[in-house]
Design goal:
The chain is α/β, with parallel strands linked by helices. The protein has 29 helices and 20 strands. It has 3 domains: 101 residues, no CATH class; 327 residues, Rossmann fold, CATH 3.40.50; 240 residues, 3-Layer(aba) Sandwich (Rossmann fold), CATH 3.40.50.2000. Bound molecules: pyridoxal-5'-phosphate (PLP).
């Protein structure tokens, strides 16, 4: 197969004049390449479909990566395919829409983001989950960052994003014949990703240097286009680095504490230097979780050298412009480093700041005088930001209590940590079929107002049969996906022909389908539903009103208890008492998540309250008509109103783990037996579950806009970014 060169590094394909009328094979090809090199395509299903149609088999094999797919086509072959499939006008239209999107006349941000137009937000995060073909994320935090920048793009909020490029990403998960998780790291070919070397004002690719006591680290910088947002990714795989340093950014959350602090140094300090080299001067730094908060120290250094400020002045100035978001309600979950690692990596920067190592350590300690306290990234973040927030209302309470010692003179309500509840990027998570339904029934410009409540009230005007049919179609697509995946898993494990055949027919679209997919951390209690195995099997195999359950999720490679949970659940497939109604899908990622949240009837979430900061997967389910069955934790504690889903427990906390687990397990079974299952199987003469459909409508109308990333980014803009960039001191209004 002839390979075609992708555009020269640094080229900006979209801005060249490709939209001339002549349709030579080359110009058609160039348009496709231009579309493939802006991840805008990934939240426009009709554009993704264009690529898939070119070669459906390769599309799937290539993880839905259009850059890689197009490299397998010559312009001539592409033109032939486009001719056969009558794709010309769709390609042209997609290309035109992208160009229009990139040059909008007016956006929400034009009116509402004021000062940011000159001084954008710099959004830092250790991971970005944008699409399955760009494997630089591990889970919820990354997907949230991806959704944040997509909504900033959609709203036109001026924002640049900074992250790390991991050329092996996070691991791919396989289960062996015993059901035990095996990890595989795959080397990504940078030429197959939609990114180019980032260039400075002089047009040359930029590299940043970070000094440590153990020698210099170099990082090159990639530019990835996510709609109107530019995402800059730092990458240590540079020939000029020592061999071991070239691997520093190979894996997400891999390696030991030293790897970790070095990655965080590159992200924070390197990230600020990259912005400088790019000629970008941010008005506001949004630091998403503790990994990136070293950025504040580098900005202080900049202010001191460039504006002649003293350390104290610079510190006040930087905290004025910094917004810090914390995501971790467990004390043990926060990054901490000992004094040796801090001095080794921040020593040279500390010299420039003119502070002692005790002063520096003090910035990362709750009690600066306590020499036994290690350096905590979250403490640095809280001390160096005037605006700090948690990610749900309940998480706000937990966070204020957790860090109350930082403000010992304040009562808990006055601890300056607010909350902005997480949300999801609707176009990325809304199934095409549901979008069509909304298009038919909502005002024509509903997409422009999806972060507002009014449009979603229209759901009550939709014909219940139409909503149910749409949901049923999506559920069937999910079941086909499960059958394909599970039979492939059986084949790989060389299971018997009968087992493979059974997998090809597993699950039944008429049965109430529950999905549970997330990281297999023990606090999320993936096995809560299966703990009383007899009771669980009765629910599965009830002759009149059965249920079926789809599980997915990875355990961190070092988390043995998490892997044990996976083994236990995956092996239920072999238990005859489960009647073939439990499946485990391997290698949970954005693609698997998308299929699940499009098609399930019920999304189960049962963490130990209050350990789930927010959670977002349940918000994705809402958009597609699924109902949440969840512990009143994270976002669900503020979302559930008695009629828009189902609750487990009544929001109690402060009991021992054992008592909590016992209570929640009992309540989970009771809610299923007495509420969820009867409601689902209560059908009218047309076979429609009227009361269930009503709940779907309640869920969509009350939750879709509130837990959207558009609402979230508007909140950050109005309550944090503007005042940070404008230098207003009105902090914490977002409590
Ligand atoms: C949305 C999403 C998450 C977040 O899910 P929660 O468990 O609800 O926090 C994690 N992983 C992937 C791949 C996702 O798409």
């Amino acid at each position: 197969m002839t390979r075609v060169q992708s555009p020269a590094p640094g080229a900006t394909p979209v801005e060249t004049s490709l939209d001339s009328i002549e349709l030579s094979p080359q110009s058609l090809y160039d348009k496709c390449v231009a579309i493939s090199r802006n991840l805008w395509w990934s939240w426009h299903p009709e554009v993704g479909t264009l690529f898939r149609e070119l070669d459906p088999v390769r599309w799937r094999q290539l993880d839905h990566n259009p850059v890689a797919l197009l490299q397998e086509f010559t312009p001539e072959r592409l033109e032939m395919r486009a001719g056969e499939l009558v794709l010309y006008s769709r390609i042209n239209q997609a290309y035109r829409r992208l160009k229009e999107y990139l040059n909008p006349g007016h956006t929400w941000g034009t009116t509402n983001s004021g000062v940011l137009g000159f001084k954008p937000v710099a959004y830092f995060s250790a991971e970005f989950g944008i699409h399955e073909s760009v494997p630089i994320y591990s889970g919820g935090l990354g997907v949230l960052s991806g959704d944040h920048i997509k909504s900033a793009s959609g709203l036109g909020v001026p924002l640049v994003a900074i992250g790390l490029f991991y050329d092996q990403g996070y691991f791919r998960q396989h289960l062996n014949a015993e059901g035990y998780q095996k990890e595989e790291y795959i080397q990504t070919d940078v030429k197959k990703l939609p990114m180019d070397p980032a260039c400075g004002p002089d047009g040359k690719p930029i590299t940043v240097k970070i000094e440590t006591r153990a020698g210099d680290l170099l990082a090159k910088v990639w530019l990835m286009r996510v709609g109107r947002v530019k995402l800059y990714l730092l990458d240590c795989d540079d020939e000029r680095n020592k061999p071991e340093d070239r691997e520093l950014t190979a894996r997400l959350y891999g390696g030991d504490q030293r790897t970790r602090i070095r990655q965080e140094l590159v992200l924070g300090v390197g990230g600020v230097r990259a912005l400088k080299a790019l000629g970008i001067s941010p008005g506001c730094y949004h630091l998403n979780e503790g990994h990136c908060v070293f950025a504040t120290l580098e900005v202080i250094r900049e202010r001191m050298t460039e504006e002649g400020m003293s350390f104290d002045e610079a510190l006040r100035d930087v905290s004025q412009h910094t917004v810090f978001t914390t995501h971790t309600p467990v004390p043990a979950g926060h990054d901490r480093f000992d004094g040796g690692l801090i001095e080794e990596h921040l020593g040279p920067l500390r010299d420039s700041l003119g502070i002692s190592s005790e002063q520096l350590m003090g910035l990362g300690r709750v009690d600066p005088q306590n020499h036994h306290e290690s350096f905590c990234m979250t403490v640095l973040g809280l001390k160096l930001s005037r605006r700090a927030n948690a990610v749900s209302s309940l998480h706000g309470h937990v966070t204020r209590r957790m860090w109350a010692n930082l403000w010992p003179w304040r009562v808990e309500e006055e601890i300056p940590i607010g909350h902005i509840t997480n949300g999801v990027h609707i176009p990325s998570w809304l199934a095409w079929q549901m979008q069509q339904l909304y298009d038919r029934n909502f005002p024509a410009d509903w997409v422009l107002h999806m972060g507002k409540s009014d449009v979603w009230q229209q759901i009550y005007q939709v014909d219940p049969g139409e909503l149910w049919e749409t949901h049923y179609a999506l559920k069937n697509l999910l079941i086909s996906f499960v059958r394909r995946r599970v039979s492939r898993q059986c084949l790989r494990r060389e299971e018997s022909e009968e087992a493979v055949e059974a997998a090809r027919n597993i699950l039944d679209p008429h049965v109430l389908t529950i999905g549970f997919a997330r990281r297999f951390a023990t606090y999320k209690r993936a096995d809560l539903l299966t703990q009383d195995l007899d009771r669980f099997c009765q629910l599965l195999t009830d002759t009149e009103r059965p249920i079926q359950v789809i599980f997915a999720g990875k355990a961190h490679p070092a988390d043995e208890p998490g892997k044990e949970l996976i083994r236990k659940i995956a092996n239920l497939r072999h238990n005859p008492a489960c009647g073939g109604r439990v499946v485990f899908i391997e290698d949970y990622d954005i693609n698997v998540c998308r299929h699940l949240i499009h098609g399930v009837d019920v999304w189960l979430n049962n963490p130990r309250r209050p350990l789930e900061a927010s959670g977002t997967s349940g918000q994705k389910v809402v958009l597609n008509g699924g109902l949440n069955l969840s512990v009143l934790d994270g976002w669900w504690a503020e979302a559930y109103d008695g009629q828009n889903g189902f609750a487990i427990g009544r929001g109690q906390s402060h009991v021992s783990t054992e008592i909590l687990d016992d209570r929640d397990r009992e309540d989970l079974y009771r809610t299923l037996e007495e509420e969820v299952i009867p409601l689902y199987y209560d059908r009218d003469i047309d076979g429609l579950p009227r009361h269930w459909i009503r709940r779907m409508m309640n869920s969509i109308s009350s939750l879709a806009w509130r837990f959207s990333a558009h609402r979230m980014v508007m909140d950050y803009n109005n309550l944090a970014y503007l005042s940070a960039a404008g230098g207003h001191s009105s902090d914490m209004s977002y409590r």
